[in-house]
């Protein structure tokens, strides 16, 4: 239970108490500042607390946005401020400072603050003065109200509360009856529920999702909210639906393929609904963000496997295509993650490429075209579903590979141009994130320490060049030489050396963000080449399982970094060997074992890696959730 402390002169007919109770607050009344301070001290330390001016006029959803969002320790809207348990001490200190001038009556009239100018459909602000004067800026301080003095005190101490964008919603504390009536009229003029439904939809989304899914999935999200369903439950339902779709595809029959396509689209509808439900009801959590992101990858890659199994029932072996699609899609994501982390907090001038992109954004249709050609998850899943129902798995994978290859080329080329023309100064945090994404094991780390003095004297492009050349050498050798030969082993040893050189110094160069995707492509590509070269049944499915397990580990690393939780523990990286250790191990196994034995070895390795990374990942995220980790809402890949 959360607690709301109402301060200020009570207003007859006000709905503020009822609104707060409907949001889950236990409402207490403070007669003056001293009473408010005493009530604040009585609230248990593990509870959220809010201080709200009793004269507040506004939409209930404005209160919801300002007082119940779990992502922010401190938040405020005009006339109200809230603190979660982690920020209770800061609020208590602010209360002492705000009331230090004496026992100021909480009913002291507050200076009028209007809502933002757009508070009433872009016209007159709810708090405009009776004389028709221009409203005060949205950020103006209510000097007479306790809640706004608390906000000022918090900001002065460096604990600036989050201020949500209310858009057309009204949130104001009128200073006289006339402005109160105007504010109430402004509230009545804006449909609170319509705004809430609209805000449930992701601000930046793909064309297919925006026009084919969100127009009705938002209502499904509201239906779920009214029945007490949580985003995690909807996420789980989406996963189960996709797994059933994969099972239908695995039957290898036309009815099975049609059912698979329909169910995959249904799974995507639920995938959109879980995020919309989280935004609609503000049910954000660290665990939920991880489940949503992880299950998206699990659904798609399980569906690839289902298609490959279905094709095999019809006599067509497409496991190499399925594995190639997973490798390409994962490398695309690593490019996105690495580029974003490298530029997360970098300071730089605006590049000509970025300026051109900004100009294109002003031409509406170009925005949708550029969003579609990168083949985001909505367009990608729609294409897969339609092709599954109407064609064969082989055609589906061909189309997927061509589309993803074009999208990867387009996005990577643009980011390379931006990096070369944008003189960024990257931070230690960005360099650390890229090093974590590299997933270097004991071999690369020890060699990197030995090579560090020499690496610092090499040109700035050394890191990506070394990663690219070493990765290309081991992958090409595995693909072009006979299975079981010694040459891939020599190439893998060279790869260990070049991968160590790539991370021997901090990854702060303009193109150093390419190091992790180059390393991912090298490891996954080598496994694919060796399994294909083995030429026996079961080798490619075993390789698919191994790459899926390793890819999960790499995705989990990304989600930990995004949640400011750091990389996986060093023992896990050592136990799984790092990318260079796994690559060397697979190559050595291929050289020492027969093709059937190699298949068994890949299966054992896949199971071992999967158990290690899954158990540690689940342990970490459940512990973070139970330990009260700050809630996050990762928008992830545009749908």
Automatic annotation (TrEMBL):
Any GO CC annotation of this UniProt entry: membrane
UniProt entry keywords in alphabetical sequence: Membrane, Transferase, Transmembrane, Transmembrane helix
UniProt KW Transmembrane helix keyword: yes
Origin superkingdom: Bacteria
Signal peptide: none
DUF5941 domain sequence ranges: 428-639
Molecular function terms, GO-annotated: phosphotransferase activity, for other substituted phosphate groups
Gene3D superfamilies: 1.20.120.1760
Chain spans, region Disordered: 102-137
Coiled-coil ranges (or none): none
One matching Pfam family: CDP-OH_P_transf
Family matches, as InterPro entries: CDP-OH_P_trans, CDP-OH_PTrfase_TM_dom, CDP_ALCOHOL_P_TRANSF_CS, DUF5941
One GO biological process term: phospholipid biosynthetic process
Transmembrane portions of the chain: 395-417, 461-483, 489-507, 527-552, 584-615
Family: Belongs to the CDP-alcohol phosphatidyltransferase class-I family.
Name of the protein in question: Phosphatidylglycerophosphate synthase
Origin organism lineage: Bacteria, Bacillati, Actinomycetota, Actinomycetes, Kitasatosporales
């Amino acid at each position: 239970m959360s607690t709301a402390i109402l301060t200020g002169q009570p207003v007859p007919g006000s709905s503020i108490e009822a609104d707060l109770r409907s949001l889950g607050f236990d409402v207490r009344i403070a007669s003056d500042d001293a009473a408010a301070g005493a009530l604040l001290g009585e609230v248990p330390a593990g509870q959220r607390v809010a201080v709200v001016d009793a004269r507040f006029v506004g939409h209930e959803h404005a209160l919801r946005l300002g007082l119940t969002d779990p992502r922010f320790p401190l938040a405020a809207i005009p006339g109200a401020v809230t603190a979660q348990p982690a920020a209770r001490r800061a609020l208590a200190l602010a209360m002492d400072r705000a009331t230090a001038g004496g026992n100021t009556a909480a009913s002291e009239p507050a200076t009028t603050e209007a809502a933002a100018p757009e508070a009433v459909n872009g016209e007159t602000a709810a708090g405009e003065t009776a004389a028709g004067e221009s409203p005060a800026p949205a950020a103006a301080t209510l000097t007479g109200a306790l809640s706004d003095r608390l906000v000022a005190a918090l900001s002065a101490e460096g604990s600036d509360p989050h201020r949500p964008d209310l858009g057309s919603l009204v949130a104001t504390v009128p200073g006289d009856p006339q402005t109160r009536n105007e504010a109430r009229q402004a509230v009545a003029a804006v449909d609170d529920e319509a705004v809430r439904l609209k805000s449930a939809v992701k601000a930046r989304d793909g064309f297919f999702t925006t026009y084919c899914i969100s127009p009705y999935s938002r209502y499904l999200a509201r239906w779920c909210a009214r029945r007490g369903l949580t985003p995690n439950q909807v996420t789980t339902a989406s996963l189960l639906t996709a797994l059933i779709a994969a099972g239908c595809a695995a039957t290898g029959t036309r009815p099975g393929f049609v059912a698979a396509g329909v169910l995959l689209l249904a799974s995507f509808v639920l995938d959109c609904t879980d995020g919309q439900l989280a935004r609609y009801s503000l049910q954000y959590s660290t665990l939920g963000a991880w489940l949503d992101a992880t299950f998206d990858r699990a659904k798609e890659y399980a569906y690839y496997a289902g298609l490959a199994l279905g094709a095999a029932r019809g006599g067509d072996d497409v496991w190499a295509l399925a594995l190639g699609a997973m490798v390409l899609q994962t490398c695309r994501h690593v490019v996105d993650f690495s580029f974003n982390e490298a530029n997360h907090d970098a300071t730089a001038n605006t590049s000509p490429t970025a300026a051109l992109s900004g100009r294109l954004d002003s031409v509406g249709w170009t925005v949708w075209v550029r969003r579609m050609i990168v083949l985001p998850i909505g367009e990608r899943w729609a294409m897969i579903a339609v092709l599954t129902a109407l064609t064969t798995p082989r055609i589906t994978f061909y189309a997927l590979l061509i589309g993803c290859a074009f999208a990867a080329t387009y996005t990577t080329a643009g980011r390379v141009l931006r990096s070369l023309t944008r003189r960024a100064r990257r931070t230690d945090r960005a360099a650390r994130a890229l090093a974590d994404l590299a997933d270097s094991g004991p071999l690369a780390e020890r060699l990197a320490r030995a090579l560090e003095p020499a690496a610092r004297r090499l040109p700035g492009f050394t890191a990506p060049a070394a990663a690219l050349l070493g990765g290309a050498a081991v992958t090409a050798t595995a693909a072009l030489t006979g299975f079981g030969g010694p040459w891939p082993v020599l190439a893998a040893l060279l790869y260990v050396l070049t991968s160590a050189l790539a991370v021997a110094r901090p990854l702060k160069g303009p193109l150093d963000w390419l190091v992790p995707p180059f390393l991912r492509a090298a490891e996954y590509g080598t496994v694919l080449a060796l399994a294909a070269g083995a030429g026996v049944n079961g080798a490619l499915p075993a390789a698919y399982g191994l790459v899926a397990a390793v890819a999960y580990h790499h995705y989990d690393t990304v989600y930990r970094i995004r949640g400011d939780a750091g990389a996986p523990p060093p023992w896990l990286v050592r136990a799984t060997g790092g990318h260079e250790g796994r690559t060397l191990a697979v190559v050595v196994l291929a050289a020492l074992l027969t093709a059937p034995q190699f298949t068994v070895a890949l299966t054992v390795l896949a199971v071992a890696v999967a158990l290690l990374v899954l158990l540690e990942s689940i342990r970490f995220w459940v512990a973070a959730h139970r330990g009260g980790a700050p809630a996050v809402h990762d928008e992830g890949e545009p749908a």
